[in-house]
Amino acid sequence: MSQLNFNESLIFTKLKMDSKEEIIRHMAENMVEKKLVKKGYTEAVIEREKEFATGLPTGSLSVAIPHTDVKHVNKKSISIATLREPVLFGVMGDDDTTPVKLIFMLAMDEEHSQLSLLQKLMAIFQDDELLSTIHQEDNKTTIKNIIETKLDLTMQEGELNV
Amino acid sequence: MSKQKQVLVACGAGIATSTVVNNAIEEMAKENNLKLDLKQIKIAEVGGYEDSADLLVTTAMTKKEYRFPVINARSFLTGIGVEETKKQILGELLK
């Protein structure tokens, strides 16, 4: 299993943006610059989000998990953004929209093989208190530590690209 | 024993969400002693199973009408309403 790239430079706090396209572009271009994903990743995520929305209404604040095909990815990585004001995303599998305040952008490099990582991620989405803690936090290292603990990444610290 | 049911699990890009849903259904089948023919696919590939599938469980929106029931699986990701969704799926599998 390849290592997961996740650190402070992939975390954005209290972003002020007007549209989901703007947010996706901001986060994805950062990953392109770091060569974690290929140039086409940004447009591919934007297009995929139009066709298959990824907004997930959770208990109190909604989350979105924009992602796309593995072919656009160089290195498995996750980027996180918290938004100052909620931005509307389409609801996954639905015609509705939902006001999203937390974005988890996923760049997965293998199909079907990251079950435990995804399950741990979904466990975060199901923890209302944790989501609002992350949303209110200004310190990127604190956010990084929370996510790492929840994803069990600390167990493989040596492999982490910090 | 009746014929093994073919269940399609699909999401848009076939990477993230369907993996989680696929696993949840596998566990559910085990708990209930059901043998399933589970296919994890992309939503665009559903057409290829049009004649053989018994059920489609998906996180992607589908406007198309199929001859088998379609169940939305978003609850497996958010945890909200997951018991209801499981009941729905089990209901279809036990038909």
Can you characterise this structure?
- The complex is a heterodimer of chains A (162) and B (95).
- Chain A is an alpha/beta fold and 162 residues long.
- Chain A has five helices and five strands; from the N terminus they run βααββββααα.
- The longest helix of chain A is centred in the first third of the chain and has 14 residues, at 20-33.
- Mean pLDDT of chain A is 90; it is low at 157-162.
- Chain B is an alpha/beta fold and 95 residues long.
- Chain B is globular, with a radius of gyration of 12 Å.
- Chain B has one domain (5-93): Response regulator (Rossmann fold, 3-Layer(aba) Sandwich).
- In chain B, strands 2-1-3-4 form a four-stranded parallel sheet, covered by helices on one side.
- In chain B, helix 1 (17-31) links the parallel strand 1 and strand 2.
- The interface between A and B is medium-sized, with 29 and 26 residues.
CA-based shape of chain B: globular
- Give the radius of gyration of chain A: 14 Å
CATH superfamily of chain A: Mannitol-specific EII, Chain A
Uncertain ranges of chain B:
none
Radius of gyration of chain B: 12 Å
Per CATH, the architecture of chain B is 3-Layer(aba) Sandwich
Would you count the extended β strands of chain B for me?
Answer: 4
Give the neighbour order of strands across the main sheet of chain B: 2-1-3-4
Strand content of chain B: 15-25%
Please describe the biggest sheet of chain B, giving its number of strands, its sense, and whether it closes into a barrel. Answer: 4 strands, parallel
Pfam families (chain A): PTS_EIIA_2
Protein name (chain A): PTS galactitol transporter subunit IIA
InterPro entries (chain A): PTrfase/Anion_transptr, PTS_EIIA_type-2_dom, PTS_SugarTrans_NitroReg
Organism (chain A): Halolactibacillus alkaliphilus
Quick summary:
The complex is a heterodimer of chains A (162) and B (95). With 162 residues, chain A is an alpha/beta fold.
Topology:
The complex is a heterodimer of chains A (162) and B (95).
Chain A: E1 11-15, H1 20-33, H2 41-51, E2 55-56, E3 62-64, E4 77-90, E5 97-107, H3 115-125, H4 128-136, H5 140-151
Parallel strand pairs in A: 1-4, 3-5
Antiparallel strand pairs in A: 2-3, 4-5
Chain B: E1 5-11, H1 17-31, E2 36-42, E3 55-58, E4 70-72, H2 75-78, H3 82-93
Parallel strand pairs in B: 1-2, 1-3, 3-4
